[in-house]
């Protein structure tokens, strides 16, 4: 295999940030559905909304002409439903630590960043697509606005991921986070049909980030599919588990197993770094202006950085 492998130091890029809009944080508060609606209607220039552990209510409805970001973490104490009725400016829907909530998005025509989608979320409806345990319903009308998607699974499940990707034909950046703490398993996953192409792999997907990568047979099989089938990808970033020593031999072996020389995109770079311990633990909910809220998943630092130029 012809390649150059070297340890390098890359100066971390300064995260792009946007001006901070007004933000409302509701955490461990008791509130009725009616009062919540009144509060939102009174916040006419509200930009960001953070909801966590809302008490004494099992249904909340959101209609806001100005909201751009919604962050949800353990929304209700038990089961409940969040209904996003009208959010014409919503760009990001960030979901972490799901409980038993059902999330329905009726209208968010500018939604670009979505995640974490997880089988732990019983149901999430976006436009006319219903994801039950992350398994999407069939639809003739995919979600074309989403450019960045993050998925949260217990282990590599290629069929499940490819089924989801069919719903996002214009996806440009995909994060797949493997986490042993995700206990919910995906059932009745449709198998991949090679004769039914996935549009984002043909013309849009530029960046793939795999976190908690161990380099075993399952991980390699999952990653190799994208190496061999993502036609316009520029970067495949491997966030390697911290208990694995990333040395020259390990990287060389991985490149051979991934069949990197036969990659579909000759411009693709394969980079090996370390995974952060927790995406949501790294997200500062007081400052949601970072351009890519999932960028913490892949730590591109000198302590674990190695890069393969192919």
Automatic annotation (TrEMBL):
InterPro entries: F-box_dom-containing (IPR055302), FBD (IPR006566), LRR_FXL15/At3g58940/PEG3-like (IPR055411). It comes from the Eukaryota. SMART domains: FBD. Signal peptide: none annotated. This is FBD domain-containing protein. Pfam families: FBD (PF08387), LRR_At5g56370 (PF24758). Residues 199-273 form the FBD domain.
């Amino acid at each position: 295999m012809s390649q150059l492998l070297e340890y390098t130091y890359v100066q971390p890029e300064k995260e792009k940030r946007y001006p901070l809009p007004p933000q409302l944080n509701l955490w461990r508060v008791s509130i009725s559905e009616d009062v919540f609606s009144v509060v939102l209607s009174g916040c006419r220039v509200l930009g960001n909304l953070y909801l966590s552990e809302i008490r004494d209510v099992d249904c909340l409805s959101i209609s806001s002409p100005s909201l751009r970001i919604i962050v949800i973490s353990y929304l209700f104490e038990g089961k409940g439903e969040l209904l996003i009725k009208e959010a014409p400016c919503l760009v990001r829907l960030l979901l972490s630590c799901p409980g038993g909530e059902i999330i329905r998005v009726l209208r968010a025509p500018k939604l670009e960043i979505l995640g974490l989608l997880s089988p732990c979320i019983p149901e999430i409806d976006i436009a006319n697509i219903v994801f039950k345990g992350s398994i999407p319903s069939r639809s003739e009308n995919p979600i074309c606005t989403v450019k960045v998607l993050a998925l949260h699974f217990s282990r590599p499940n290629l069929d499940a991921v490819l089924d989801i990707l069919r719903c996002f034909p214009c996806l440009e950046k995909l994060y797949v986070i493997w986490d042993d703490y995700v206990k919910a398993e995906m059932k009745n996953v449709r198998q991949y049909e090679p004769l039914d192409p996935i549009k984002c792999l043909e013309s849009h997907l530029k960046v793939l980030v795999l976190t908690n990568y161990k380099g075993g047979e399952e991980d390699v099989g999952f990653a190799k599919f994208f190496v061999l089938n993502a036609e316009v990808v520029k970067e495949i970033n491997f966030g390697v588990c911290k208990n694995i020593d990333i040395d020259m031999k390990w990287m060389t072996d991985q490149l051979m197993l991934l069949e990197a020389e036969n990659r579909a995109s000759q411009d693709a770079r394969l980079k090996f770094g370390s995974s952060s311990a927790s995406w949501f633990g790294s997200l500062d909910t007081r400052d949601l202006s970072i351009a890519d809220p999932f960028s913490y998943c892949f730590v591109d630092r000198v302590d674990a950085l190695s890069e393969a130029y192919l």
